[in-house]
Amino acid sequence: MFSTFAILAAGFAAGILNAVAGGGTFLTFPALVWAGAPPVSANATATLSALPGYLSSAWAFRHHVRAEGALTLVSVMLCACLGGLLGAGLLLLTPGKAFSALVPWLLLLATAAFAAGPFLLALLRRRGVPAAGPAVSAAALVAVSLYGGYFNGGLGIMLLAVFGLLGFSDLHGMNGLKNLLSAVLSIVAVVTYITAGLISWPAALLMAPATTAGGYLGAWLARRIPDMRLLRGGITAIGVAMTVAFFLI
């Protein structure tokens, strides 16, 4: 009963966080592990549970989605598909013990990216970093999508940072494209996970609706939070706490 409540609560809270500022995986992944799911299965199930939120957010931003820089929108989506597939395939090849050993470092990377992301984007805009060419743009998008297919934590802020490096400047367009690519690469990864039997379906059927409901509430709250810096600081603190906990396990 406690595990059921923890999964529902983590999913609902993660949906709110993802809609407002990101970082929901810092709650869903540990909750699934502590409820008894093996780390690889917990990672796959957390990705599946986040997918409805990505899709609804992408739909909400549908009028703003466009590509900037050297690649077309179709090319950007193909890079996301390729990276998501490679990342999911790499996860399938990673032994459970090896992935468990990597988890604290992945959480540390995701937390650092989440905390530093806004500062990096602001720095890139101030310095007017020139847009990358097609080859560099494609390689960067495939690389961050590979990370997303392997471990979903911190994906959104990593995508935004890469967009900044590629010369994107329209914030609404960047947010819309971030949600669309998160959905696209997650679909590819989740199909791979399902085929490999990695999804914990009882947990997923509890968490996905809770995450979706939290996402709707988060979209409402996002327009009413006066200072996003406090929220981002709280999410970063959660990420730090989860990272320390997994290093100590």
Task: Write up what this structure looks like.
This protein is mostly helical. It has 10 helices and no strands. It has helices at 2-20, 25-34, 39-60, 73-93, 96-127, 134-150, 155-165, 171-196, 201-222, 228-248. α2 runs antiparallel to α3 (39-60). It starts with a helix and ends with a helix. The mean pLDDT is 84.
What are the SSEs and their pairings?
Elements: H1 2-20, H2 25-34, H3 39-60, H4 73-93, H5 96-127, H6 134-150, H7 155-165, H8 171-196, H9 201-222, H10 228-248
Helix pairs in contact: 1-2, 1-3, 1-9, 2-3, 3-8, 3-9, 4-6, 4-8, 5-7, 5-10, 6-7, 6-8, 7-8
Structure summary:
The protein has helices spanning 2-20, 25-34, 39-60, 73-93, 96-127, 134-150, 155-165, 171-196, 201-222, 228-248. The protein has 249 residues and is mainly alpha-helical.
Task: Give structural attributes.
mainly alpha; 10 helices; globular; 249 residues; TSUP; membrane
- Secondary structure tally, helices: 10
Cα separation of the termini: 23 Å
Estimate the helix proportion, in percent: over 70%
Computed Rg: 17 Å
> How does the helix and strand content classify structurally?
mainly alpha
What's the pLDDT, averaged over the residues? 84
Low-confidence segments: none
User: Total domains, how many?
Assistant: 1
Major β-sheet profile: none
Keywords: Cell membrane, Membrane, Transmembrane, Transmembrane helix, Transport
Main location: membrane
Protein name: Probable membrane transporter protein
Subcellular location: Cell membrane
